[in-house]
Amino acid sequence: MIVREEIRVKDFLPTGSDSESGAVVTFAGVVRSENGGRAVTRIFYDCYDELAAKEINRIADELKAEGTVNEICVVHRVGEVSAGETSLFVVVRAAHRREAFDAVARVVEEIKYRVPIWKKEHYADQTTRWL
Amino acid sequence: MKVEVLFFAQLKEVLGTDREVIEVADRAVVQDVVQALACRPEWRGVAEIPLSFAVNDAFVPGTHALAEGDRVAILTPVSGG
Predict the structure, then answer these.
(1) What are the domain boundaries of chain A?
(2) Backbone dihedral angles phi then psi of residue A75, each to the nearest 5 degrees
(3) Residue A42 binned pLDDT confidence (cut-offs 50, 70, 90)
(4) CB A57 within 8 A of CB A1
(5) Residues A94, A98, A103, CA angle at the centre, nearest 5°?
(6) For residue A127, how far is the Cα from the chain centroid?
(7) Which one of A97, A104, A116, B52 counts the least CB within 10 Å of its CB?
(8) Rounded distance, CA A24 to CA A29, Å?
C-alpha cells in the first residue's frame, strides 16, 4: 500500500497465531542522512499512486504464486520523508526462514525496479537531485 | 482525438504541470504523444532520459494504440524504496 503519513512499523507487524509460518521477516528502508558523501536532509517521493499500488500487489501475488510464501505486506511512504524516517516496510511470512529472507530481498529489488515511484534527494546545502 | 497526459518527477518539474490534455491524430500511438511533447523547448532537458509508458493505469509499449479520452502516463526510470 501507498501511504503519505509516518510508517508506524508496529501497526503492520503480524498479530494472532499462524502455525503455518515458521518465519516472519521484516525489512525497513530508512532515509539515510548521507549519500555519496553528501549530507541528505530528506527525500521527496513522487508516485503514480494507482499504478504503484497495482504493481506492488502484482509483485506480492507473483511471489505468493510460487508457493513458498504465505503472506506479504508492503507499505511505501511517499511525499516528504526526513532522514532517519522509514520510507519502505516489508513483512513476509513463510514456512521457512530461507524462503522468507529471499522473498523480502526480492520484493525490495522488484519495487526499486518496477514500481512507479521516484525520489528526489534534498541536501544540507539546499540543492536537490532526482535519483 | 483528445488524451490526458500525466507527468511525474523530473517531467512534472520540467513541464511545470502534472497533467494536460493534448490533441493527437485518430490513429495515434503512445509514441506520438512523446513526439508532440518533444517539439517543446523545455523538453530538451529530458530528451535523453529513457521513457516507459502506461495507459489507463497499465504498462504499455510505445506502439500501443490510443483511444479518445485515454490517460497516458509518461514515466522516467523509477527509483523507489
Answers:
(1) 2-7+20-130
(2) -125, 120
(3) very high
(4) no
(5) 60
(6) 26
(7) A97
(8) 17
Dihedral, A60, A62, A65, A69 alpha carbons, nearest 10: -40
Question: Within a 13 Å sphere around the CA of B26, how many CA atoms are in the beta-carbon half?
Answer: 0
Contacts of A115 in chain B (CB under 8 A): 78, 80
Top CATH class of A2-7+20-130 equals alpha beta
Whether A31 contacts A43, CB under 8 Å? yes
- What single DSSP character describes residue A4? S
Q: CA-to-CA distance for A104 and B55, rounded, in angstroms?
A: 29
Give which of B7, B52, B57, B60 to mutate to test A binding, by max A Cβ within 10 Å: B57
Residue A13 φ then ψ, to 5°: -75, 145
What are the structural domains of chain B?
Answer: 2-75 (3.10.20.30)
Say yes or no for a CB contact (<8 Å) between A48 and B6: yes
C-alpha grid cell, residue A127: 540543492
Furthest C-alpha separation in chain A: 51
pLDDT of residue A14: 82
Query: Which of chain A's residues have a Cβ under 8 Å away from the Cβ of B54?
Result: 48, 51, 116
Cell of B2: 483528445
Per-residue model confidence as pLDDT tens digits over A116-125: 999 999 999 9
